[in-house]
Amino acid sequence: YTQLAQDPNIAASCMTFSMCQGGLGNNAKVAVLGAAGGIGQPLSLLLKNSPLVSQLTLYDIAHTPGVAADLSHIETRAQVTGHIGPDQLGAALKGCEVVVIPAGVPRKPGMTRDDLFNTNASIVATLTDACARNCPEAMLCIISNPVNSTVPIASEVLKKHGVYNPNRVFGVTTLDIVRANTFVAELKGLDPARVNVPVVGGHAGKTIIPLISQCTPKVEFPVDTLTALTGRIQEAGTEVVKAKAGAGSATLSMAYAGARFTFSLLDAMNGKEGVVECSFVRSEETECKYFSTPLLLGKHGIEKNLGLGKLSAFEEKLVADAMGELKGSIKKGEDFVLNMK
């Protein structure tokens, strides 16, 4: 069992193991902004369930007192408080070490993640502004789509306040990795908890680049299967949007992925070594200002960017094909903050 818990793949992807990692003396204060929403509620439940969290503050524009009251009855140590509306946002953020942001509107059928830009851009800008004022040192984990634009938005807002630290701002792409692991495991008859596929690039459509050639354990697929698998990983979000038929987008799997990333970050902040997660961050690895690659996490956020590693010819083409869209999305985010009143 202890050997299993030391395997980063298994420890990261097995939520129950986080229940056994309480010997870290951790007293993290974590905020969830957008805590009453479709992702926010199950994400808050998973965070409440973890011994890594000692204080959990829940913020939204409605319903948070009820969500907080409900979660507060769970027999785990995290103290839960609910905060509602802009007047209470500062109090929710004071002293937080980690802030997770799933706030915003979800996709409906026929929408791209970019269609969410107009609504979610201002939400992320407003929430990041409050973080800059109330917890400038906190790690920011941004889930709100389009991540390819909202991470640059958050970064530019923090710059305006003079508190930007690129090692502490993360676009949560973990769901792409979780999906890749699951789909590869299904095709190969493996236990998904033991599969680890790095996914690089961005977090929308063709900017999502699964590096199947770097999968552990090593797997191989004929080119037509590989093409179909890559397409399924890239469009998996749309698969859920269609299946929900207007009732929203991925919420439960996203909450799981958001919790997985948050727990990895908390573990690393507590001094656990060898914690690696992919995330969309400020980067020098490609010609894009922001790019997702595997990152070694540490006490102060990103300890080391592990880069792209060795790519297959198939993957090199995927990276080249993603650049145009990714650059456009990044610029769109930066321009939004530039033109903000």
From TrEMBL:
Positions contributing to substrate binding: 107, 113, 145, 179
Catalytic activity: (S)-malate + NAD(+) = oxaloacetate + NADH + H(+)
Keywords on record: NAD, Oxidoreductase, Tricarboxylic acid cycle
Domain Lactate/malate dehydrogenase C-terminal: 173-337
Enzyme Commission numbers on file: 1.1.1.37
Pfam families (UniProt xref): Ldh_1_C, Ldh_1_N
Residues that bind NAD(+): 34-40, 60, 120, 143-145, 254
Listed GO biological process terms: malate metabolic process; tricarboxylic acid cycle
Group of enzyme by EC: oxidoreductase
Active site per database record: 203 (proton acceptor)
Limits of the Lactate/malate dehydrogenase N-terminal domain: 29-171
Entry GO terms, CC: mitochondrion
GO terms for MF: L-malate dehydrogenase (NAD+) activity
Similarity comment: family membership: Belongs to the LDH/MDH superfamily. MDH type 1 family.
Identification of the protein by name: Malate dehydrogenase
The species this protein was found in: Scleropages formosus
